[in-house]
Amino acid sequence: MKKLIIILSILLFTFLLKSQIIEDWxxxxxxxxxxxxxxxxxxxxxxxxxFMFYEKGPVGVRQIWWKKISDPMSEEQMLIGGYPExxxxxxxxxxxxxxxxxxxxxxxxxxxxxxxDESGLVGDSFRLTNTEYDENSFFxxxxxxxxxxxxxxxxxxxxxxxxxxxxxxxxxxxxxxxENCFDPICKNNYIAWRKVENNESHIYYSRKTYPLxxxxxxxxxxxxxxxxxxxxxxxxxxxxxxxNLCWEAADKIYFSDTWxxxxxxxxxxxxxxxxxxxxxxxxxxxxxxxxxxxxTFTGEAGSDRDIYIIDNMFSGEVLNIxxxxxxxxxxxxxxxxxxxxYYEIFNIWQTEIDGFDVLxxxxxxxxxxxxxxxxxxxxxxxxxxxxxxxxxxxxxSSENILVNAVQVYSVAGDLILEKNFNSQSHQxxxxxxxxxxxxxxxxxxxxxxxxxRKLIKI
Length: 458
Prior knowledge:
Blueprint: E1 3-5, E2 19-23, E3 29-30, E4 37-46, E5 49-57, E6 63-68, E7 77-80, E8 88-93, E9 98-106, E10 108-117, E11 120-127, E12 134-141, E13 146-152, E14 155-163, E15 168-177, E16 181-186, E17 190-197, E18 200-209, E19 214-215, E20 219-222, E21 228-234, E22 243-249, E23 252-256, E24 263-265, E25 275-283, E26 293-301, E27 304-310, E28 317-320, E29 328-339, E30 342-353, E31 356-368, H1 374-377, E32 380-383, E33 393-397, E34 403-410, E35 415-420, E36 427-430, E37 438-446, E38 449-457
Antiparallel strand pairs: 1-28, 2-31, 3-31, 4-5, 5-6, 6-7, 8-9, 9-10, 10-11, 12-13, 13-14, 14-15, 16-17, 17-18, 18-19, 18-20, 21-22, 22-23, 23-24, 25-26, 26-27, 27-28, 29-30, 30-31, 32-33, 33-36, 34-35, 34-37, 37-38
């Protein structure tokens, strides 16, 4: 494995990355066999083990399988499927042990859900939608709830997921935009999608605004070229950029770092690489203030396609993590296990072998730096931890530290709660009673710096 160092001629300034890799990207490892098609992975951490859900099957018929990828020798198991005429696809992990998938058991595709734990399914799957041909689903946290969006016959629909113990339902269904719209992605009250107009694919977005909490009129990010493969991540709150959106168009990678059309051609000019495909963005909110992202993409040289990683679109260091003579494609970045200040990140992609797609992975371990000095960390106390239902979390600080703000994140890095404090008190209270059990991370901004603590809700 080697590193390609590229100095971009358009680089005007250099950001300071406040995180560092302490274990570099590992050599690629196959996660599935080469006797069937494997695609669309999604991963989750349960009981400190890492599980992957994915599509598996012959052409035209797919089931949803899973395996423990923290143990490469563990066996694959079919989670959902078994009916030869039914197609199960696009597994999406929402939160708290719920998996959402698409299924055409009633002829048109609908969205279904199922509860799972580290031993397998918990109960039967249940139907979530019953509109025309529901597909291309995508899920993201909002500040106050869990939002999902999907395409239905060219319309983009959004809804809120409401939980009970072993099931969930979609409420507040809204048509965000209609006619010729495809491939929605969403995060934190923001949806972007493709709209086909005059035989071209343009990118639009909408967001929920306050105080009316309604979707804004669709606005244009870009109206040129055949734009595909959207990927979305959030910036850190201090940057006020809102969202980072990247996509592919005309074999190049484009990038927008604001709410509106601040567009840049961001593809690094890698020697020997002719075309660039399938970008995926991943935010490092818990690690850094200045660079909120990792990016991965496919670079093509002749008949070969390799997977590349770059720390941010304006840096000069690009890493090839495949370097083989195979066709590698569709990389995705995921959060693995987190034990602050250590943050595990996985890249999973598809590789063509013997006529089938095999899932491969590489991962790296990051460590956050900066923030409050180690000798001051003991002066912040969070109790109770673990926290139960109907209990508030109290942060106590010493006399020389004032807490200014607190953000609470899911293990996927999504912001689920934010609270500002304007008090000379040294006791601060936050409420997580609306959130289900699981692992969370509290970012505490103080008069002496900031730190992140791990919190478990039981």
